[in-house]
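User: Assemble these into one structure.

Assistant: Restating your components, then the assembled model:
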Amino acid sequence: MFGKILENVNKKHPLVHAITNYVTVNDCANMALACGSAPIMADDINEVEEIVSICNALVINIGTLNERTIASMIRAGQKANQLGLPVILDPVGAGASKLRTDTALELLEQVKFAVVRGNISEIKTIDQGSGTTKGVDADSNDALNDGNLDQIVQFTKRLSEKTGAVIAITGAIDVVADQKKAFVIKNGHPMMSRITGTGCMLTTVIGGYCGANPDDLLVATATAVSCMGLCGELAFEKVWAQKEGTASFRTYIIDFMSNMNAEMLERGMKIETR
Amino acid sequence: MFGKILENVNKKHPLVHAITNYVTVNDCANMALACGSAPIMADDINEVEEIVSICNALVINIGTLNERTIASMIRAGQKANQLGLPVILDPVGAGASKLRTDTALELLEQVKFAVVRGNISEIKTIDQGSGTTKGVDADSNDALNDGNLDQIVQFTKRLSEKTGAVIAITGAIDVVADQKKAFVIKNGHPMMSRITGTGCMLTTVIGGYCGANPDDLLVATATAVSCMGLCGELAFEKVWAQKEGTASFRTYIIDFMSNMNAEMLERGMKIETR
Amino acid sequence: MFGKILENVNKKHPLVHAITNYVTVNDCANMALACGSAPIMADDINEVEEIVSICNALVINIGTLNERTIASMIRAGQKANQLGLPVILDPVGAGASKLRTDTALELLEQVKFAVVRGNISEIKTIDQGSGTTKGVDADSNDALNDGNLDQIVQFTKRLSEKTGAVIAITGAIDVVADQKKAFVIKNGHPMMSRITGTGCMLTTVIGGYCGANPDDLLVATATAVSCMGLCGELAFEKVWAQKEGTASFRTYIIDFMSNMNAEMLERGMKIETR
């Protein structure tokens, strides 16, 4: 099931339109290519409708939002909705400023999202309509652990019901759910939080996976989350063995994604259903 | 002849003003430095004339164009023309949206370009005034091969005559021509299309090579194209030997450029005249 | 003393708000994480006050300034001043255009800076109110050497008195001074000028070091400068041993920062008081 998702990406080479932040955009583009999709970044309001029309999915990331690009996000999202394309939201820093919280909420009102991926603080902000986030990282008070896992799974399913989107909460433990079914994923490594952009890159990968598997958004998203985590584990092993640091880790996580195949993925996944 | 071009870059350290996209800008800056030039990125309309005035070449890349930066591109291009500096155009995604096609055409009308470099779909769009491009990659129907090579060589020469610019069409096979003479270049490796920015980086390198060799634009451009392809070949060999992936490939292609010299280049070039 | 500065960064994980350029922003974010701080990039005028309010320091870098972001820089800087947070200025390219020179001067008028870090040409421009800079690199006529070092130390102290900020002039030799005391630092390697962003990354590291050591800005800044230079030396040794190039150097400089500790730092520092 999961391996098939990845094979579809490599077969269809989905084109992913990303309106994203300028901090991690290069990593997102390289990761998109590494995972078998092809990225196109375009944010001028006069071209986003045309660009999204030649694509298989749209990724909206509010990491360095501004007035000009917010308008483009909404325009592109509505066009993608008309075309029936999956739209993925990464509400970076929702809860850290009123502008980010309001923009995330407005996007959810104006655009129908196929998937929303964020850390626990960002996703709670979306649920509650307000929040506090330590910058772009999750608040440690919110962290998932084995003690509150069942509760978070129920929360994720309820939020999926409320929004109509697959919800992916990522952190030390990941939960990916629609209103009926949840996957709990334990791939990944703490070093992923010592480089910028692992969240943004993952959201871009989700875009490619959903673009190639539009009829199976939940499993596509869970596969992407697990695959990214697995690449993080493999990258850490290599960095550790070679006594390297975080920039090498960044290189290797993309390297492993570019060499991933269905067999390696299925062997490495740490995923269960709830 | 070719080695001399490279030596001039290392001797003169030309300063290259780039108005470029935010996806690959960091790679372009590092590649500019690696090839012996020095980059400066500046896109505010209130400074582009002054900035270009201290430079040896101007590179205009429309990869993430917007209304604000389009105006700056034209202003900078016209100033560079007044100063007699070579201006290089990378019409990223021309054909993928009306905005990109129209902007490329307007730039060609308002600014005299020394070199235009793109993939075959982008260059055909410029010739025809309209086109269809699969995002920022060439349409596979357009691909160069040994069967249509003569025809493309003739097309390239005619377009050079029409525009007054050296035309560089890059892909599996590269054609670089002015109205009289063409170079066909077979350096490069398919992995170059699995990372973002090889096209943008090449255009920046062309900027440096033309900035240091303003009286020999055709040979400077062909040398840059061949040199970039050679770095791709060397990078692939290393990635393959070490069982690495696409992000390591990106690192090595810049590494090899930073260590290139005239002898290595002339030994590795796969270039012929048509 | 110096080791304690670094330990505070690792203990407090200061959050650094950066309004910076899109060329090196990814490197700045990764370097911020590597040195133990956490970055957040936000430049919309409607959120900068809120964002800076959750941070420990603000870094302002004018490398790709435009009208929109200049207004955000001033707004964020004034808010940080109200909150008593250290604000660090990187006047990239001051002297290369009137816009850059004027913006640097206006920022110095409107915002009280804790630290200003630039190359010698940029810092002289700030002192004189005008200047000539070869793009974003220092003019070679201005270079520090053992012959003019005493004179530059005196100049640095005077400029600190005039501006109220710690002044860090970086190049082959670095001088960091407040009005009473100067550190002369001889860490670093010439290869640092063959990649983009070493200056920007250093300024971001200074932000983290000052954010975690707000009562010791002079020593925090000198420690950051020395630490960055030491990482450059270590990265060069590795690149040289492995016959690699400038992109590997970029990777390793961040790697070494991510593995730095107080003992390694104190052993490697080449610093003296003047």
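The longest strand of chain B covers residues 15-19.
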